[in-house]
Amino acid sequence: MADTFEKSFVRIRNVNGTTAGAGFMVDEKHIVTCAHVVQYALALGSETILPKESKIQVEYPFISPVKVLSSRPIRYETSNDLAVLELMDSLPAHACPALIAMDNHLSAHAFKVYGYPEYYNEKGVWAYGEIKDALGDGTVQLQVKELTGEAIKQGFSGGPVWDEQLQRVVGMIAISDKDIRLAFMIPIQAIAQVWPIGAKVATPIVNPTINQQELVKLLLACPSINNPHDRQTIIDDLPPNIKNNIKYNASAKMHISNIVTTCLNYAMGLQSLVEKLAFFEGEDSLPVQKLQKFLNNG
């Protein structure tokens, strides 16, 4: 699922062709970024009113061949540092909206971000760290690791924050303090109040009182998870913190029971399992449809 980060990631150019910041797709036509990135891209200085017919160049740096596309700002709110761009050109092949999670319990989760700071203004660079807690203004504090990756600074603004545990985008880089390796993100919940987030939003599908025995029975009815080889392939594709804690058992029923128990211990764990299963089986698989109906009804 991490490749959806790259397929939704957008570099935003300024009027001189250098990098103004980043953004990410939230649906097939729209990109979310920071208002101050738009200001920089259009060389507005401290102006808060956009010139008519403003156009901003964007590109998808992880999708080859890289093509420069035109977009126009349709939402620009300096008060909360949010902006929305609408694409004016056709999407490149394989581009897609980000996978997104709305979750208030992110503290201690590992994250990664990509940006274009000085000295990496063309090729970009990764930064890694740990999500901390929400502040009084609604932003969420991020701590960048000392020895891994770049400090988050100018050039990262507007970029998506990828939660390694949830395997989803959970926010957008807004401001940073490179001297003490801190950054702050606007959470997805705040972005959704300004712009409707599409169907790529993932929320936990598990009712805490779910009947695990019935869930195991429904999973056993799915050919791809009942087959030992395919089951292991599905497990291997789960987030590392989940797959590394699943205990093997020679009994298919017991092994699947261990998979369920482990997935239920992690936010989005069961969601990830069902997504992988649906990929193997196909969305039109009757066993998968029965499984999804059971989970949705809780």
Describe the overall structure.
With 298 residues, this protein is α+β, with helices and mostly antiparallel strands. It has three domains: 85 residues, Trypsin-like serine proteases (Thrombin, subunit H); 97 residues, Thrombin, subunit H; 86 residues. It has ten helices and 14 strands. It has a six-stranded antiparallel β-barrel with strand order 1-2-3-6-5-4. It has a six-stranded antiparallel β-barrel with strand order 8-9-10-13-12-11. A two-stranded parallel sheet has the order 7-14. A hairpin with a 5-residue loop joins strand 1 and strand 2. The radius of gyration is 21 Å and the shape is elongated. It starts with a helix and ends with a helix.
CA-based shape: elongated
SSE string: HEEEHEEEEEEEEEEHEHHHHHHH
SSE-based structural type: alpha+beta
On the 0 to 100 scale, the average pLDDT is 85
Major sheet attributes: 6 strands, antiparallel, barrel
Name of the level-1 CATH class of the largest domain: Mainly Beta
Q: What order do the strands of the largest sheet run in, or round the barrel if closed?
A: 1-2-3-6-5-4
C-alpha-based Rg, rounded: 21 Å
Q: Helical percent range?
A: 25-40%
Q: Unreliable runs, pLDDT <50, ≥5 residues? A: none
Give the helix tally.
Answer: 10
The CATH homology group name of the largest domain: Trypsin-like serine proteases
If you consult CATH, what is the topology of the largest domain?
A: Thrombin, subunit H
Distance between the termini: 25 Å
**Percent range for β-strand residues:** 25-35%
The CATH level-2 architecture of the largest domain is identified as Beta Barrel
Provide the domain count: 3
| Number of beta strands | 14
